[in-house]
């Protein structure tokens, strides 16, 4: 972005209200043509919105988010393949499934945590499929990590691989780019206090200087 473009985006965001929390400063707009719903990135899960953390980083509101086309399973098998707790008897925002085996079901928050921990080894926890499974999870808004699995030894994962170093906000306002970070101020990079696998510049997620911790939308 040029300086003028950055200022314009900040000014426009300040005038938009989040349709979830109703507060001003919403920087994300639904990508569906004709939809003008805007929201904050931290509010997205509460409003069942989806952000695709790849390609053009598109975001969608609850009405226009992508949907999985999977068949319902028999009631007696409605458990999460990861935590083994009950899931809904149909596919929804919070209940997802594997497009390859059509059998695995899991909570959105469970598959998101698995994706962050598994890194480049991310696959269906039941059929172990990677390609169509990973592609679908990306489309459904699951954030993938390019790091080795967290269960590998420290000797296999160097220090440079352990700390996330980019802004993952849907709209990054920093003129220096997503990897630019400063020690203080609006371009200070804040990592998620839960998973440390996502980050944001303070200004890109409307965090003031008094905010000591930040949690990403997937956590």
Automatic annotation (TrEMBL):
UniProt-listed InterPro entries: EPHD, PHD-type_Zinc_Finger, PHD_PHF7/G2E3-like, Znf_FYVE_PHD, Znf_RING, Znf_RING/FYVE/PHD
Q: Which SUPFAM superfamilies match?
A: FYVE/PHD zinc finger
Is rRNA-binding there in the keyword field? no
Where the record annotates domain PHD-type, the positions are 1-65
Q: Which one of the record's GO molecular function terms can you name?
A: ligase activity
Q: What are its GO cellular component terms?
A: nucleus
Q: Which domain of life is it from?
A: Eukaryota
What keywords does the record list, in alphabetical order?
Answer: Ligase, Metal-binding, Zinc, Zinc-finger
Q: Taking every annotated instance into account, which residue ranges of this chain make up the domain RING-type?
A: 80-127
Q: Does the keyword Zinc-finger apply?
A: yes
Name under which the protein is recorded = G2E3 ligase
Species of the source: Prunella himalayana
């Amino acid at each position: 972005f040029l300086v003028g473009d950055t200022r314009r985006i900040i000014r426009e965001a300040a005038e938009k209200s989040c349709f979830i929390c109703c507060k001003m400063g919403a920087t994300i707009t639904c990508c569906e043509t004709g939809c003008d719903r805007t929201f904050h990135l931290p509010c997205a899960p509460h409003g069942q919105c989806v952000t695709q953390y790849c390609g053009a980083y598109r975001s969608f509101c609850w009405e226009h988010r992508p949907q999985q086309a999977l068949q319902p399973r028999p009631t007696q098998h409605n458990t999460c393949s990861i935590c083994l707790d009950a899931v809904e008897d149909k596919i929804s925002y919070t209940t997802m499934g594997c497009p390859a085996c059509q059998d695995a079901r899991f909570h959105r928050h469970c598959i998101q945590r698995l994706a962050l921990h598994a890194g480049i080894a991310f696959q269906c926890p039941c059929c172990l499929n990677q390609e169509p499974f990973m592609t679908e999870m990306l489309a459904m808004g699951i954030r993938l990590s390019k790091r080795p699995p967290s269960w590998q030894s420290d000797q296999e994962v160097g220090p440079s691989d352990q700390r996330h170093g980019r802004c993952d906000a849907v709209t990054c306002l920093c003129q220096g780019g997503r990897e630019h970070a400063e020690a203080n101020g609006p371009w200070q990079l804040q990592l998620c206090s839960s998973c440390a696998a996502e980050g944001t510049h303070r200004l890109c997620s409307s965090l003031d200087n008094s905010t000591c911790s930040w949690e990403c939308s997937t956590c």
